[in-house]
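Quick check before the chapter quiz. The format below is the same one you will see on the exam, so make sure you can read both the input and the output lines.
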Amino acid sequence: MTGTTCIRDSTREEYVAKLLKELGVGVVLELEEVDPQFEAVADICQVLGLNGAVAAYLAAVVAYQLRCTGEVFWSRFSNYMRRVAPDRVSEGVLNFIVGDECNSIQRQAKVGRVLKLSRYLSDIRNLILSCSFLDLWKLTCRALDADVNSKTVAFAVKMGYYGARALKICRGPLPKEIPIPLDRRVARATLSLGIIRANSFEDVMRCRDLVLESWRSIGESSGIPPIHIDFLLWALQNPSTLAKALHRVSRSKEEILKTLLRLIR
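Here is the expected output.
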């Protein structure tokens, strides 16, 4: 292959979908509770309640091009929001963006994103409260004039959902229409799993539409929405989180996770 040629491997798609179906969406939802991002959002919500879920959603739309790791970003954000406990959630998020060094790249653009969404705070709050995450996804795309496959938009909805889960407002999975957020770690996993054949994970990133369609197909066949597969792929590349996950599942589910781990390695 030359250039940025990417080819879907339907046989490998079917195999990965089969493994995920055996694992089950219920197990994946349970494992999300060991996600450091879930833990950070849950800590915020313990102090701020529903405002914590809204704050997590707003922070997620600026969680790109960071000068720190995602884990550090969410830890700092959680600590800040719990310490400050702002009455006006958008002002709290804006103050964090302005004052934290993780956000120094494209800081003004990030401020602008939060200000755009601040016009819809009442709608955002109600959509999270009613677990209407498909509508929240559509609103976010519209408000930011973003592509429906935007990884940041999908991630923001996921963080708002994590807040709702932590508050025990919502329990079921997110809608299957919301795409997996395609970042470098998802691209690496996609390449390692053999779902997409390409020269490098950089090529996988360039073939976004093909990759997202592949994960949509896997989500449909496995019964696990792509947005939830996202955490699983991350955990399989993070030893400490994977260790926590393995302790929460039965022996048969553990074997499935280990099979996926062997494929990714």
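If your answer matched, good. The mean pLDDT is 96.
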